[in-house]
Amino acid sequence: MKTAVVAGALGVIGRYVAERLAQLPDWRVVGLSRRLGEERERVRHVSVDLLDPADAGRKLRGLQDATHVFYCAFQPAAGAAADYARNVAANRDMLVNAVSAVDAVAPGLERVVLVTGTKYYGSHLGPFRTPAKEDDPRHLGPNYYFDQIDWLSAFQRGKRWSGCELRPQTLCGFAPGTAMSIVPVIAVYAAVSKALGLPLRFPGKPGAWRSVYQVTESAHMANAALWAATEPRCANQAYNITNGDTFRWCNLWPRIAEVFEMPWAEPQTISLVAHMADKAPLWDEMIRKHGLRPYRFEELVAWPFGDYVFGCDWDVISSVTKSRLHGFHDVVDSEEMFVRLLERFRAERIVP
Ligand SMILES: NC(=O)c1ccc[n+]([C@@H]2O[C@H](COP(=O)([O-])OP(=O)(O)OC[C@H]3O[C@@H](n4cnc5c(N)ncnc54)[C@H](OP(=O)(O)O)[C@@H]3O)[C@@H](O)[C@H]2O)c1
Known about the structure:
This protein is an alpha/beta fold. The chain folds into two domains: 2-171 and 215-241, Rossmann fold (3-Layer(aba) Sandwich); 176-214 and 246-316 and 332-347, no CATH class. It has helices at residues 14-22, 53-59, 88-105, 144-156, 182-195, 206-210, 218-230, 249-259, 272-275, 280-290, 297-300, 303-310, 321-325, 334-347, and strands spanning 2-7, 27-33, 43-47, 68-71, 111-115, 162-168, 171-172, 200-201, 216-217, 237-241, 264-265. It has a seven-stranded parallel sheet, sandwiched between helices. A two-stranded parallel ribbon has the order 7-9. The protein has a two-stranded parallel ribbon with strand order 8-11. Helix 3 packs parallel to helix 4 and helix 5 crosses helix 14 (334-347). The longest helix is centred in the first third of the chain and has 18 residues, at 88-105. The chain is globular. The model has no long low-confidence stretch (mean pLDDT 96). It binds NADP nicotinamide-adenine-dinucleotide phosphate.
């Protein structure tokens, strides 16, 4: 029996990692976050503030059986989604507090999987060398990933366990109450546009419309995390994890409009943060009218994330060759994935 400690178990990555492991008979899962998650067979939750070392030490003291840590917690800073310089201290400290507390009590710890992302290469700053490879140089910081990676590799030295770092790009999943997923952004933007009798206009920059982009489905990321935790070749390695393909919004957009049974139109660049700011009352009305699940507007979507993704008017491509060579062969068709996830959002009454 293996015991996974999933830090950030309610997030758009951690939630899926916990779910994936819970499907396997030989894993137990302990989810960590400030909010409490649902308890199920072999899954329990601990409410802990990982920013508080005393709370972490106290609440994680009982995790002697931990064999794996999946570190998927994230503390956003207020403001632009791409501003990773502003939240260095919080994100480094949460990792330090979580991993040191587990390391101190769990003699059977085997691996710590750390989730970082493509912003390692400066993908959020402007054009960068593509396809990005794991040993490409970092961008000029600050970037909290660098602090996390450097701390973890120094702390790991001489220990019985190994680390593994995964770099995904723009997660596609659903985790109500967390800030970063592009699927709810598209779903709610489309539904609101339709309610206002507008076509589905691409809200991003004209350059983003035609650039090559990539995403990582959350369920695919969870499979990758499982592989990274258990594959001997992954010890102390880093891997890009994307769906394994690329796409352009200009090709995908008409298919998204089809899902919502509405016309689409050419890009008109707007700030979603600014233009969705007054739409919460309309959303409440739409919930009543269409009998939707009663998520609050701000719980459903983080508009800064949409502005960030649709503002990348440069190619964003990572090479996934290294992960394939080391044994992770799953792939996802990204265009089909968007259609599938958006249809599910409609079927599950998250959007009309
Ligand atoms: N989302 C993306 O598109 C994306 C893309 C590439 C890379 N990444 C990277 O993946 C990592 C995880 O991000 P994510 O998007 O999955 O985050 P997320 O969806 O915002 O989830 C964050 C998780 O961390 C928990 N958390 C936050 N502060 C905490 C605290 N003080 N103590 C305990 N738990 C805390 C949250 O639960 P509570 O709020 O209940 O505490 C939640 O479970 C980040 O480093 C991010 O940069 C994400």
